[in-house]
Amino acid sequence: MSIRREAARVAVVIVNYQSYEELHGCLASIDRACGGVSVVVVDHESNRDAADLLSQQFPDVQVRRVAGNDGFAAGVNHGVRATSSQYILLLNPDCVLEPDAGCRLADWLENHPDVAVAGPRIRNADGTIQPSARRFPDFTTAIAGRSSWLTRVLPGNPMSRRNLPARDLADRTPVEVDWVSGACMCVRRDAFDSVGGLDEAFFLYWEDADFCRRLKHAGWRTMYVPTAGAVHVGGRSSRHAADASLEAFHRSAFRLYRKHAGPVAQLFAPLVYTGLRLRLAFMKRLVRSRRS
Fold this sequence. Notes:
globular; nine-stranded mixed beta sheet
């Protein structure tokens, strides 16, 4: 492999949790997509044998073994501190980059100095497009968000189209959006540092929305750049702790609400909390019924 550990223009930071099989494919795609970058893997609850094999197969990748699991945001911040590159490509271990994807995202940031984050077009394993570019959550997100019933049944309804602005774009023209998925995003280091990185109070989920929102408040822009692409299987790490992942999703959603909702919206916090707890209970029952 041509991946180098020394300082490079782009540093790839991957937070891994028990997803070694997918991680191998991810690392192999980095060499094809952005040869000559540095790569850091933050390996939470590291499996000694699997991590040893990883280091043998990818000797130029810096594997930072962590005994516990402080969450995705903490893992990202840990990995970023281990690099000094101008641009940081955050990448999930179950993502595979398309050729030149990382370089195209970094080039976009380099040519647009007011942009902090660039996210690619992300596809599912079956080739369909993931709605990875979105508007900040509001009262419509609960009923017309990415995974809501209304979006699945009537994907073209106005509220879903508003929440998922880049999902139906026919061309490959970059567009400004509120936030992009942390499964694959390229970040300008100066911008990352200016807002203190990811908020580690988010254990898992919604930290990417919070990050882009804080960047926007600081005067930066986030762009969806569909000329770069990745394939994301999704849910590979969370499958090892499904109930805990569901808890984290709903806990983080409520934290995002409390952190960014205006004074009037804060009055509805008890109602939002109750709604999220009810949704969590329903999702847990649904998951358990599928297992049986």
